[in-house]
């Protein structure tokens, strides 16, 4: 049983509660099991991992200390038997992930037996916010590959390439460097399309004078990297230089705030005020940043409504951007690990405005 699971068990108030875990990232975090089909039934006794025959051997190898249950029929009936064996009186389920149909079947099966169903919110996600040393090793490696990918692509970019070609060059490099995959929906957007914060690659041919925004990330052992750089193909125009340096100034200001004790919303509010004073707050189309880990977007978030206080072990991206429809946009994104004395920036790639 891993440390994450031991910590989670300490959150259970008594032995007559069971927690059902379906979400793949939470399942992996608590059990180590990486298969695509699995279901956790967690109690103060021996926890159970329910899966099917395709993953039986994998589950036994990965989920040390777990009771592995291989089923062929309705998983709800398997859950019922496990609960009855341990005289469980209350079942906690993930209110944000459990489907209506599955909840209905659970209720039809368990309520007549006197077993209550209690919705819970982000029980595991709250524990996942603070990264362990092992998690940080995986995150460091994912960002190392991503940094190298940017260094590589900066030497290859030129007018005449398509966005799809650049996207594939980045993906191929990261996979060959050891990434198990790359983050979903990575961004390669050029020219006027760089005004799209999440612009997916197209067949558009990159031209001289274009902004080119690349938002990419390698994945290592399930842990995501997320980093963005914007460059200019050819010589930058005066306005391009001005907007780029405005975003860079905002990012450096935000990075300087990243330390234990900061309330997440304060950072977002500060940067919005910075842009407001310069008349471009309406062009900042997203939040200042977010946590990363087993998911590309985790909590806490650097947004005005988030009152979370940063602590040592949080991993947060800082990514201000300005977007002007029909013209283009700039985003600069660095990831930081919050440390006891401040933060450690995982981005080693230059933030100078590159003319390529």
From TrEMBL:
GO terms for molecular function: aminopeptidase activity; metalloexopeptidase activity. Gene3D superfamilies: Creatinase/methionine aminopeptidase superfamily (3.90.230.10), Creatinase/prolidase N-terminal domain (3.40.350.10). It holds the Pfam family Creatinase_N. Transmembrane segments: none annotated. Keywords: Aminopeptidase, Hydrolase, Protease. Residues 137-340 form the Peptidase M24 domain. Residues 18-130 form the Creatinase N-terminal domain. This is Aminopeptidase P family protein.
């Amino acid at each position: 049983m891993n440390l994450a699971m031991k910590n989670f068990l300490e959150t259970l108030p008594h032995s007559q509660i069971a927690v059902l875990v379906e979400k793949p990232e939470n399942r992996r975090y608590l059990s180590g099991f990486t298969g695509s089909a699995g279901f956790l039934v967690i109690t103060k006794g021996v926890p159970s991992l329910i899966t099917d025959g395709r993953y039986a051997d994998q589950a036994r190898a990965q989920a040390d200390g777990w009771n592995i249950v291989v089923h062929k029929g309705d998983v709800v009936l398997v859950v019922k038997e496990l609960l009855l064996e341990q005289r469980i009186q209350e079942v906690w389920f993930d209110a944000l992930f459990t489907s209506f149909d599955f909840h209905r079947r659970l209720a039809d099966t368990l309520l007549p037996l006197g077993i209550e169903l209690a919705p819970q919110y982000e029980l595991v996600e709250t524990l996942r916010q603070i990264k362990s040393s092992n998690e940080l090793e995986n995150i460091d490696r994912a960002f190392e590959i991503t940094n190298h990918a940017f260094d590589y692509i900066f030497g290859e970019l030129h007018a005449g390439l398509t966005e799809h070609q650049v996207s594939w060059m980045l993906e191929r490099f990261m996979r060959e460097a050891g990434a198990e995959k790359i983050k979903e929906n990575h961004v390669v957007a050029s020219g006027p399309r760089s005004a799209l914060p999440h612009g997916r690659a197209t067949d558009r041919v990159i031209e001289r004078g274009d902004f080119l925004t690349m938002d990419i990330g390698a994945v290592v052992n399930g842990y995501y990297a997320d980093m963005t750089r914007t460059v200019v193909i050819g010589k930058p125009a005066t306005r391009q230089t001005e907007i780029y340096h405005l975003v860079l100034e905002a990012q450096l200001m935000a990075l300087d705030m990243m330390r234990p004790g900061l309330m997440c919303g304060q950072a977002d509010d500060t940067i919005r005020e910075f842009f407001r004073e310069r008349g471009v707050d309406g062009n900042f189309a997203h939040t200042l940043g977010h946590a990363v880990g087993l998911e590309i977007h985790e909590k806490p978030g650097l947004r005005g409504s988030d009152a979370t206080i940063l602590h040592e072990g949080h991993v947060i991206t800082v990514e201000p951007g300005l977007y002007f429809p029909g013209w283009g946009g700039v985003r600069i994104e660095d990831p930081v690990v919050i440390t006891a004395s401040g933060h450690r920036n995982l981005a080693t790639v230059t933030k100078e405005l590159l003319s390529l």
